[in-house]
Design a protein that fits this description.
Blueprint lengths: L16 H10 L6 E4 L6 H8 L4 E5 L5 H8 L4 E3 L12 E6 L8 H7 L5 E7 L6 H9 L4 E4 L11 E7 L11
Parallel strand pairs: 1-2, 1-4, 2-3, 4-5
Antiparallel strand pairs: 5-7, 6-7
Bound molecules: S-adenosylmethionine.
């Protein structure tokens, strides 16, 4: 646990629908399919499908397979470790997820290394602090953020959507 966060069982914290809706309203993704790299039971996937997006989902826990298949069909579901995925299917332009916080920032770096046009991740705002995390923030400065002041999970504090959009300037931000 590089950052010392202790979350739920295997970091399974399903994302409430309003959190995904907020993202899609404020930062609409471009045309094309969306990757959910650690989809859990499909809380984000379900909202994306409901809004008409095509989705390709990966998840490490085989127990979530049936739930994901029921949302997007077998050929759009992959069960495995996200670190073993080095390219996403053709037609995918975006990635949206709430990642396992215990694997940050590496998990985020892997998401940002796929050459996609749009990446949105829920992360603790602690990524912006301390010398080690400031290094991540300097290299991968987001173009937009949504601070989730109405906390999605009672025992998890201060999380934001971090959004990277191709062609948009990184947010002006300094760490000292
Ligand atoms: C915080 S939960 C969020 C689930 C889903 N993204 C959502 O928003 O409802 C994180 C998920 O990451 C999965 N996970 C943890 N490590 C993973 C890995 N290395 N590769 C893929 N999925 C992983 C967990 O099983 C869990 O379902």
């Amino acid at each position: 646990m590089p950052w010392g966060y202790t979350l739920g069982e295997k970091d399974f914290y399903p994302t409430p629908a309003w959190v995904t809706e907020l993202l899609l309203d404020r930062f609409p993704p471009p045309a094309g399919r969306i990757v959910e790299p650690c989809a859990g039971a499909g809380a984000i996937v379900g909202e994306l499908v409901r809004r008409g997006h095509g989705v390709w989902a990966n998840e490490i826990g085989d127990g979530y397979r049936d739930s994901l298949v029921s949302l997007i069909g077998e050929h759009n579901v992959s069960i495995g470790d996200w670190y073993d995925v080095d390219r996403v299917p053709d037609g995918c332009t975006s990635l949206i997820t709430n990642p396992p916080f215990s694997l940050l920032p590496d998990f985020a770096v892997h998401c940002l290394s796929m050459g996609l046009e749009y990446v949105a991740l829920i992360m603790p705002i602690g990524v912006l602090f301390s010398e080690e995390r400031a290094g991540f923030n300097r290299k991968y400065r987001p173009s937009g953020m949504i601070n989730l002041v109405h906390r999605p999970w009672p025992n998890v504090r201060d999380v934001s959507w971090f959004v990277w959009e191709a062609g948009k300037e990184p947010m002006p931000m300094f760490s000292a």
